[in-house]
Amino acid sequence: MLDLIEKVKKNVVAEFRELQLWLEGQEKLLLTKMEEIEKDIMARKEKGLAKHMEEVRSLDHLIQEIEEKHQQPASKLLQDIGSILKKFQAKETYENPVDLLLKPKWTIWDCSDIILLLKIAMKTFRDTLESGLQLQEVNVTVDPDTADPDSLKISEDRKSITGLNGFFSYPSVLGCQMFSSGRHFWDVTVDSTRRWDVGVTSKPVNFKNVHAQTRQWRISGWYMRCTAFSPSECSELVLTERPTRIRISLNCEEGKLSFFDAKTAALLHTFSDASLVGKTLLSYFYLEQGACMTLP
């Protein structure tokens, strides 16, 4: 037991360390991008300032030339001024400061948009982690509207189910509670050697012929035999003793459904199925005639 705890502790440290390293890497990439923007803006400013100073010097030189020639005869002065202006206009035109900063502006907007995305992603991550870290015990009750009254007898508190004559119907019933996120568990006490099934099912469109329109992930018990059924699996389970109290554990984000012998904590079976992720699921119960179940 202590070895198992130590192994789990190491796994926890490793997973959080991996997450920490990834976040640090993403932070470094984003900060590097921002630093490159700063350098680009400074380089563009220096380039623009250098061009501006060059233009100022050219204007000073032009003014000086005009002042030197203004004593000349009018015809000569006009001819020289035309030559001077033509030479000045031939120089490279000064780049608009707005154009110089256009590319950095787009990059800054992109980084700001990433920050908003990070805030949303972190909130989703925190909510998912906080709900997932806490394994929630569910007070499951069954919904009589999902059962055929001729095939199942359900107690008033909706906690006890007894199989009647299911020859002309499918004796199953669904729980009232729905699951789409987080980690949950509930126990079922089985008091029968007749066939029983427990597990989860996808949410039906309506409550007519539920079994035919849904997909189930369940284990089925009958005497000392136990079988696991899913849309893609059918496997016999090896039992050392017949379980009378089953614990069903559902991890919605991971798409994992596990069944335990609640009295010994022995794992009976686990479904790891990506098709469970993102679905709305309900607890599922099936009882043949004479079988009994109780939800503690």
From TrEMBL:
Residues 120-296 form the B30.2/SPRY domain. Signal peptide: none annotated. Keywords: Neurotoxin, Toxin. The keyword Heme does not apply. Neurotoxin that produces dose-dependent hypolocomotion and hyperalgesia in mice. May directly act on the central nervous system, as it is 6500-fold more potent when administered intracerebroventricularly than intraperitoneal. Belongs to the ohanin/vespryn family. This is B30.2/SPRY domain-containing protein. It comes from Micrurus paraensis.
